[in-house]
Amino acid sequence: MNSLKRVIIFGATSAIAEQTARQLVAQGASLYCVGRNRDKLMALLEDLKVRASDHQRIEGAVADLTDSIQHAALIEAAEHLLGGIDSILIAHGTLPDQKACQENFANTRQEIENNALSVISLLTLLANRFELQRHGVIAVITSVAGDRGRQSNYVYGAAKGMVTLFLQGLRARLSKVNVDVVTIKPGFVDTPMTIGFDKSGPLWVKPERIAKGIINAMQSGKGEVYLPWFWWGIMLIIKNIPETIFKKLSI
Ligand SMILES: NC(=O)c1ccc[n+]([C@@H]2O[C@H](COP(=O)([O-])OP(=O)(O)OC[C@H]3O[C@@H](n4cnc5c(N)ncnc54)[C@H](OP(=O)(O)O)[C@@H]3O)[C@@H](O)[C@H]2O)c1
C-alpha cells in the first residue's frame, strides 16, 4: 500500500482535484497544492486548513503550469515544506474548442502545450527524483478521450493520448525502482470543464466519486484505471469498432 501522507497536487483547483484533496486531508495527508487562479487557490487552502489537524501541513503556490521553467522550483518548495514527497497527482487540463483548433493551429498548439507538454515536463523532473528516492506514486489524470481519436474532440484526445503513452513507458521504467505510475482515465464528470453539456444521462458522475477512485488507485498502485470502472467496457467496445464503421459515426 502506497503512503499518501505528503502529496503534491498540480492543478489543485480543479473540481476533481479539490475533492481528492479534501478526501486526502480527511485521511491525514499534508498537501502542497499548485493552482493557476490565486483566488480559487487561496479559498481551497483555507478550506483544507479548516479540515486538517494541527499535525498536517497545507501549503500551496500559484503557477501557470505551461511555464515549465517554474517546475523545478515548485517541486523543491513542496519537498522542503512537506519534509519529503510520497506521492504526486497531476490534474490540470483544459477542454479545447475543437472547431477553433481546426481553424487555427495556434489554438491546437496551446492545447497540446497545456494538456500534454506541461505534464510531460513535470513528469520528467518527478521521474528522476522518484527514481533516486526508490518509492512513491505518481498519478496523472488523462481521459478516456485519449483511447481513440474522435472527430468531435481529437485535439484533446491526442494530448491526453500522448500523456497516456508517455505514462506507459514511464511505468515500466520506474517499476524497477518500486515507484508506481498511475494513469487515471475518467469518463463524463460533472465539473466546470463540462459546463454546458447535457448531464442528464446515466454515465455522468460527481467529482467526489472520481476522487475516491483516484485515492484507491494511488494507494494500491494500479497501472491504468477507468473511472468509474464501467468505462473500461465502453472503451473496449469503442476501441474495437472497425475504422470503416468508426469514421461514419458522428461521435
Ligand atoms: N470533467 C470531465 O468530464 C473529465 C473527463 C476526463 C478527464 N478529465 C480531466 O480531469 C482533470 C480535472 O478536470 P476537471 O473536470 O476537474 O475540470 P476543472 O474543474 O475545469 O479543472 C481544470 C483545472 O485545471 C486548471 N488548469 C488548466 N490549465 C492550467 C495551467 N496551465 N496551470 C495550472 N492550472 C491549470 C484550471 O485552473 P483555472 O481555474 O485557473 O482555469 C482548473 O482548476 C483534467 O485534466 C481533465 O482533462 C475531466
Structural account:
- This protein has 251 residues and is an alpha/beta fold.
- It has one domain: Rossmann fold (3-Layer(aba) Sandwich).
- The chain contains 9 helices and 7 strands, in the order βαβαβαβααβαβαβαα.
- The chain has helices spanning 15-26, 38-51, 71-82, 98-103, 105-133, 154-175, 207-220, 231-240, 243-246, and strands at residues 6-10, 30-35, 58-62, 87-90, 136-141, 179-186, 224-227.
- It has a 7-stranded parallel sheet, sandwiched between helices.
- The longest helix is centred in the middle third of the chain and has 29 residues, at 105-133.
- It is globular, with a radius of gyration of 18 Å.
- The model has no long low-confidence stretch (mean pLDDT 97).
SSE topology:
Blueprint lengths: L5 E5 L4 H12 L3 E6 L2 H14 L6 E5 L8 H12 L4 E4 L7 H6 L1 H29 L2 E6 L12 H22 L3 E8 L20 H14 L3 E4 L3 H10 L2 H4 L5
Parallel strand pairs: 1-2, 1-4, 2-3, 4-5, 5-6, 6-7
Helix pairs in contact: 1-7, 5-6
Bound molecules: NADP nicotinamide-adenine-dinucleotide phosphate (NAP).
Instruction: Tell me the name of the CATH class.
Output: Alpha Beta
Give me the CATH superfamily.
Answer: NAD(P)-binding Rossmann-like Domain
CATH topology: Rossmann fold
Q: Tally the helices.
A: 9
What is bound: which ligands?
Answer: NADP nicotinamide-adenine-dinucleotide phosphate
**What is the H/E order?**
EHEHEHEHHEHEHEHH
Q: Biggest sheet: strands side by side, in what order?
A: 3-2-1-4-5-6-7
**Overall outline:** globular
Average pLDDT across residues? Answer: 97
Biggest sheet overview:
7 strands, parallel
CATH architecture heading: 3-Layer(aba) Sandwich
Q: Span from first to last CA?
A: 39 Å
Stretches where pLDDT is under 50 for at least 5 consecutive residues are: none
How many separate domains make up the residues?
Answer: 1
Helix content: 40-55%
Estimated radius of gyration: 18 Å
